[in-house]
Design a protein that fits this description.
Helicase, Ruva Protein, domain 3, Chitinase A, domain 3, four-stranded antiparallel beta sheet, two-stranded antiparallel sheet
Length: 263
């Protein structure tokens, strides 16, 4: 069957007119799989997540993510074709995921409408700072299995041996490499036998007899004592804000439960 020149020209014009529409569709989508579009915004979202982890935004990365999104869409379409979305276990898992996503969205929405203010963080910090009273101790120790070993260490110290050198044989490997140093701590950090012996020492002195605890026998030296104080507010701000937000959400839960009909 032959076509007139006018018919052929009209067909060419029609094809040319469709080209801009196709170009727009391709620009909006990263790919189209079996007529199902994968929006470019979805690819951009994955690229942004990778960039946040330090991966540079490159054509190679975008192509790899595009291929991953195509593979996921192919698997999803095949699963749906097989009716797996109607499988009881799959439905249960999808329901759980839907619930978790909705809960997170509700919490974000609630905290956005009821944000924790800087004044609240400051007030909570001030309360914590007032509670941070008492003394902190900086001590060293050497831990051994037997009482005789501890007594031998004390004798060596009395003869002038350096505590830091003797500490290398300590069973407490964490502090042994630091010359037995335990850094700054409050007495309640340690078991009672240890803390009682530590607080009874004068600065620069070591225990004259082994200190027995559930861990073995300790030789303790007290290096320094200071008044305890709260860390700077900037150091605690994220934890305080998180705790105040947790209390906000807890209040929301209580309000919803009070209004709900639960049988």
């Amino acid at each position: 069957m032959s076509h007139s020149p006018l018919t052929l020209r009209l067909a060419r014009y029609a094809a040319a007119a469709l080209l801009p529409i196709a170009s727009v569709a391709l620009a909006q989508n990263a790919a189209v799989v079996n007529n199902k579009p994968i929006p470019k915004s979805k690819l951009d979202e994955f690229v942004a997540a990778m960039a946040a982890q330090g991966r540079p935004d490159t054509p190679e990365l975008r192509n790899a993510i595009r291929e991953e999104l195509i593979a996921r869409e192919l698997f999803t379409q095949e699963a749906e074709k097989k009716g797996l979305a109607r499988n009881a276990e799959v439905k249960r898992q999808l329901d759980n995921m839907r619930q978790e996503i909705l809960i997170r969205a509700l919490i974000r929405d609630y905290l956005s409408a009821n944000p924790v203010k800087d004044e609240e963080v400051k007030a909570e910090y001030d309360k914590l700072a007032k509670q941070a009273t008492g003394k902190e101790y900086r001590a060293r120790h050497i831990l051994v299995d037997k009482e005789d070993e501890a007594k031998k260490l004390i004798d060596d110290l009395k003869k002038g041996a350096k505590f830091e050198d003797l500490a290398k044989q300590s069973k407490d490997t964490g502090s042994a490499q630091a010359g037995g140093d335990l850094d700054w701590n409050t007495p309640d950090t340690f078991v009672k036998e240890f803390s009682d012996a530590m607080v009874a020492l004068e600065k620069g002195k070591f225990t004259q007899a082994p200190v027995k605890s559930q861990f073995g026998y300790h030789v303790i030296r007290l290096d320094d004592v200071r008044e305890s104080k709260a860390p700077p507010i900037d150091q605690l701000r994220p934890q305080i804000r998180q705790e105040l937000e947790r209390k906000r959400v807890q209040t929301l839960q209580q309000e919803l439960r009070a209004k709900a009909k639960i049988q």
